[in-house]
Amino acid sequence: MAQIIDGKLVSSEIRAQIKIKAAAFEEKYDRKPGLAVIRVGEDPASVVYVRNKMKACDEVGFVSATYVLPENATEAEVLEKIDELNNDPTVDGLLVQLPLPKHLDEKSIVSAVAESKDADAFHTLDAGRLKLNDDSILPCTPAGIMAMLKRYGINPAGKECVVVGRSDIVGRPMAALLLAADGTVTIAHSRTPDLGAVTRRADILVSAVGRAALIKKDMVKPGAVVIDVGMNRNSEGKLCGDVDFEGVSELAGFITPVPGGVGPMTVTMLMNNTMNAALRAKGEIK
Description:
It is built from ten helices and eleven strands. The chain has 286 residues and is α/β, with parallel strands linked by helices. It folds into two domains: 30-114, Leucine Dehydrogenase, chain A, domain 1 (Rossmann fold), CATH 3.40.50.10860; 140-263, NAD(P)-binding Rossmann-like Domain (Rossmann fold, 3-Layer(aba) Sandwich), CATH 3.40.50.720. The strands form three sheets. Strands 1-11-8-7-5-6 form a six-stranded parallel sheet. The relative contact order is 0.16.
């Protein structure tokens, strides 16, 4: 049976370190690090995600604020709020919760967030830095996965790494980080013929597609490290990942559960990015 990679455990360890840094920051600068979130509309999943982020801020000692704009908010109204928060010296990290209503241009809105405050690391400049192997600020989910691998002594160097999914949020930056760690990386996706033939090569397999139980036992190499980024609902309405956990865990060496694997790490790395942004603004780190 595979060893479980416990995202909750790793997350709690990292949050404890962030809490210490936040307390030191408050003592030195007479204010807490601050995270601001803009949410447009009342998408149920977004409401939950933002609530979890605010809860994490409380846990690590940040001040946080959520700005809710109506579903029919214009792009100009969203950009005006972003500009206001870009210029607020008490806001160290800023993000616009995705997805946005369809009438809004997601790329232009995300790019309007000041690069120095981009807590999600979605800014075009951050994407460019990642490709140049500059890890000053990293997308939260891939960074969280790398932190889990490190915590469990899993070194990608020299290993076959397969990332299933090519999104700008997870798939592409995940591949870049594994490549930077000297892994031999393949990106597979929905149009990859014979997906199983590709995934069976993987020493480290990351699935970030959003399709319940896509990865079956016969698609996994014995002893592989399997990282499940998927957050889906099965036919019974139960939360599940991209990986058939019951079957794959019989064969894999390590595996992340859903829930309790990658999810907690994503929010934790958002806290880490915000903390680093606060320190960078004060010239304490590069």
